[in-house]
Structure prediction request, 820 residues.
Amino acid sequence: MKIALLGMGTVGTGVYEIINEEKGNYFANAQEKVNIKKVLVRDKKKKRKLDVPDDMLTDSFDEILNDEEIETIIFAMGGMEPEYTYMKEAMKSKKHVITANKAVVSEYLDTLLNLAEQNDVMFLFEASVGGGIPIITSLKETLKINRIDEIKGILNGTSNFILSKMSSEGRDFSQVLKEAQDLGFAEADPSADIDGFDVSRKLAILSSLAFGCHIKDEDIYKRGIREVSKSDMEMFDNLGYVLKYLAHSKMESDNYCATVEPVLLSSKNIMSNVNEEFNIVSIHGNIIGELQFYGKGAGKNATANAVVGDLLYIINNENKKEDISLDRIMENRKLDAFKGKYYMRIDIKNHEEFKNIIDMVDEISKVKKMMVEKSQIFVVTEELSAYTVNDLAQKINESGNSLFYARIVE
Amino acid sequence: MKIALLGMGTVGTGVYEIINEEKGNYFANAQEKVNIKKVLVRDKKKKRKLDVPDDMLTDSFDEILNDEEIETIIFAMGGMEPEYTYMKEAMKSKKHVITANKAVVSEYLDTLLNLAEQNDVMFLFEASVGGGIPIITSLKETLKINRIDEIKGILNGTSNFILSKMSSEGRDFSQVLKEAQDLGFAEADPSADIDGFDVSRKLAILSSLAFGCHIKDEDIYKRGIREVSKSDMEMFDNLGYVLKYLAHSKMESDNYCATVEPVLLSSKNIMSNVNEEFNIVSIHGNIIGELQFYGKGAGKNATANAVVGDLLYIINNENKKEDISLDRIMENRKLDAFKGKYYMRIDIKNHEEFKNIIDMVDEISKVKKMMVEKSQIFVVTEELSAYTVNDLAQKINESGNSLFYARIVE
Prediction:
């Protein structure tokens, strides 16, 4: 099979190495030899680490589109446009599409799957979620027998690295963020990682497939991790909890809820020991129970492995229709399904506020544990709904004091 | 597709429910409707929980074998014979075989795979390892691109239940074993679970596929968990370790090592939080890095889910050859690859032995930590080879004192 590769960044280079430098064993099992015929790059003259033959390089997507020998196009580019347009054009030209691009997949999954079906080609995107973890494939397989009603995941390496470091080294958020930026783990603008947009796209893709309805980034409630402090971390340790940035969605008959939030897990929870760049995904099926999948969430080789896995699937399953439907109509109940005990830290601007704050907390919950330290109150509540806690947060913030809170997932 | 089901025990009942009572969603995606035509049972008259139609029941395997309409036979029986003979006959009669039987698979994997190839049928056995965890499928997929050089797994629910309980409740081995037997989690003769034979068969199957060479139960070094005591558990807790019964194999160019042993993991290790009936498997690939898979290791629904998954694979992949070879010639280096710090507890018969024992330990390792309590010595050694420790154990046992030891896996 002749293929084209769009992009020669980290993922593109990894894919090129596995296929063209036979770094992987894949060729031993593939029923057909794969040849990269064209590589799309912006600048053909740019010096690259990998020695790609000149006649393989092109800066014209049309050249690839019009090449009838090319049966599959691998998208190793990360933006929204022209990627989305290119994907549509590729499938209309009867070419299979493989992508690692979570932005395009989460936003246009429905359209792209339909286009694949109409044109009798495959649209595969294993690498868009969880790097090397075979979660999309496993989800599709599980769905053949099960109804999946819950997904939980640690899906962002940067935020997990920051929280792991803060916890193990007792350091402040801003310090650790700076270190992650210096090491190249975090972007200069870290918002996608620490405010939940990256995780939310991944959760959107998984939840859409699992629940059979197109759930997008904008349907998911997000809270970031910027407000976590060193004093929180000490408190979690004392209480036997670990803070993780969790993607969490639930389904019930005709409705779903999906959130990306910092939550507290028991230190005895498997997910509590997932550190640094590793990802984990838990899915719950009505027959099989809970399954969890753990592996490298990013990185050249792990992600390229997922892309080449999709390519092998196409080679080994020609003429096979995938039966994925996102036609189900579901109500988004936002935060409604999420209940739990809550951890709260309230920073009080002055001592006169103390009674006022305690009253506000008392109004919604008989407090289970409370500690006061200097100008901070730490509380663990009884079971509350997410809405109640959000309302309290708003009230406290409006009073000029501030609140950090996290649900305890048991 | 018409199929036959052999056995109506726990797994057989689960399979029947998913297929015939449409308990699962599988039919929504299967490209072909499945019908159970025959169910083989020992006694057709026996009262069953499930209402199987009389004309579906048979006590004659030949009736199934000679029925040309039956394309696939599901083996939900656990013994060695007549199962092995039946499997061979089934494939020679051009019928696909699916089995949950780890005893037959581990012992005859090579022969059975060859027979499948010769007769152009499939031989699938996802349910034979790790219950509902899709580990065989994931291993095969990973192998298409990676060389797998290490496997670690907690693969036996009974022993894991016993160790989890001993640890969390500070109780003795014999007490907890008795409770597990009363609850029906452990057999009256618990040897297969606590002496390693069950785990070893599962590790044999995984290692054979991963390393490409037929590794059998007898090739695997096994030590049981009978000698673990309450005082060990307290010590592990103090040292920050958790004891797990670990299946562990490693491969290096043309040789391998495989063991089933109690080992110590850091309490920060993901596997440390795998409790009771859950299983976990870790595989390490040269491209993808470490992947871990977690789920229910046994039970009616999880195991039946794996069996029906294999059935769907056959339906969806007709005329596809699997390319699994166990032809590689490898040397079994037994324990040679396993090195680590060791925990030891030595029970001394009388005080005069004390110096003698300390000398024996000193001879092989500068001790890193030592504690003496009544007539017990607790030691954590520096890094040692498994052979050195085995020799020491033998010497100490010969001196009339006794030793329990566990490698620390870091």
